[in-house]
Write a structure and sequence with these properties.
single chain, alpha/beta, Arginase, Chain A, 8-stranded parallel β-sheet, 10 strands, globular
Length: about 350
């Protein structure tokens, strides 16, 4: 079927190109590459989707879910790093942390703001594999603008819009970035929908890895349900320490955080069955809008996960999510096999269009 939905594009998303990441202390090539975005854009356009330029938005929608200090750090980090001469001594041209002031270090002492930028990085970042380069901030803001433009389109009457957000965002919490993510585009979109009048919003995350960011951001809230379908972190997969099925929310949000971890090697049948369990709960929540964190790295052959989902599985997942009957904002997350990436995203969007049309 030909696509008819709008897909939102920001040229700025190509500017994040650090060229490396630090993995287990080793500098190695990164795989969160600019061409991921162009592959998705071109595949969607060839399938009939309308490519819409992202419109600029202010920071208010960002600080509605993120600590302003995190936003300021990301904006200034690379310039501050260069001003400190760290690209020359010790010769590190990327902003990467070396010190993580965890609770085990601090005990009951509230941390002070580190004076040194090289220490400040670990104050806001939880891993070493999410470097900041010269164009990172512009790309991150472009991704946010794409997500918020998709929200605007849905608020304007579209039943479905897709934001080609790159870099991805679903691992970012209120005050910490990591996991190749810098700002949580899906959470920002969910809050923007709430602020625009949706009383209840559901975030459905089908990326191969746990959507820990939205879980933390909305953990104690009754107005946003979070649901994540992901490879079991107990099998050794990122983010390792979160994503278990018993993490259910707290206070007003008790019972509104849903995790469906699946075993490595899970294919379409088991993956869709786990999704159905989540969607049954989402349907009972009766959301006024749905945000889909659309990672396609659960696909067979993707280098970053052990799952075996096919394009048909993604198409059917899209159809079942669309059939919830609420308007949908789809926000791009993972997917790292260039040969299959465009087709997988198109398949998911085809399913979403079919589901929202027939609901």
């Amino acid at each position: 079927m030909a696509l008819t939905l709008p897909v939102v594009w920001s040229e700025a998303c190509l500017r994040h190109a650090p060229g490396a990441e630090i993995w287990l202390g080793v500098r190695m090539p990164d795989d969160e590459l600019p061409e991921r975005a162009t592959i998705i854009r071109d595949a969607a356009a060839q399938a009939g989707a309308r490519v819409v330029a992202a419109e600029p938005h202010g920071d208010a929608a960002i600080t509605a879910v993120h600590d302003p200090g995190l936003v300021a750090f990301l904006r200034d980090a690379h310039a501050d790093w260069l001003a400190a001469g760290l690209d020359k001594d010790p010769g590190q041209d990327l902003v990467v942390p070396y010190l993580f002031p965890t609770g085990a270090l601090l005990g009951e002492v509230a941390p002070h703001r580190p004076a040194a930028v090289w220490a400040r990085t670990g104050h806001w970042c939880f891993d070493t594999m999410t470097p900041i380069g010269p164009g990172t901030w512009e790309a991150v803001r472009g991704a946010v603008d794409a997500a918020l433009t998709a929200v605007d389109l849905v608020q304007g009457g579209e039943r479905l819009a897709h934001a080609i957000t790159r870099p991805p965002g679903h691992h970012v919490s209120t005050r910490a970035y990591g996991g190749s993510c810098y700002l949580n585009n899906a959470a920002i979109a969910a809050q923007a929908l709430r602020d625009a009048g949706a009383e209840r919003v559901a975030v459905v995350d089908v990326d191969a890895h746990h959507g820990n960011g939205a879980q933390e951001i909305f953990w104690s809230r009754a107005d946003v349900l979070t649901a994540s379908l992901h490879v079991d972190p107990a099998a050794g997969w990122f983010p390792h320490v979160m994503g278990w099925a018993d993490e259910a929310g707290a206070g007003p949000g008790a019972g509104l955080n849903l995790n469906a971890p699946v075993a490595p090697g899970t294919g379409d049948a088991g993956w869709l069955a786990a999704l159905d369990g989540l969607l049954e709960r989402v349907r009972g929540f009766a959301p006024d809008a749905v945000v889909v964190a659309l990672g396609v790295d659960a696909a067979a052959g993707d280098p970053n996960s052990p799952l075996e989902v096919t394009a048909d599985g993604y198409r059917e997942a899209g159809r079942r999510i669309g059939a919830l009957g609420a308007p949908v904002v789809a926000v791009q997350e993972g997917g790292y096999d260039p040969a299959t990436l465009g087709g997988l995203v198109v398949a998911a969007l085809e399913g979403l269009e079919e589901g929202t049309r027939d609901a």
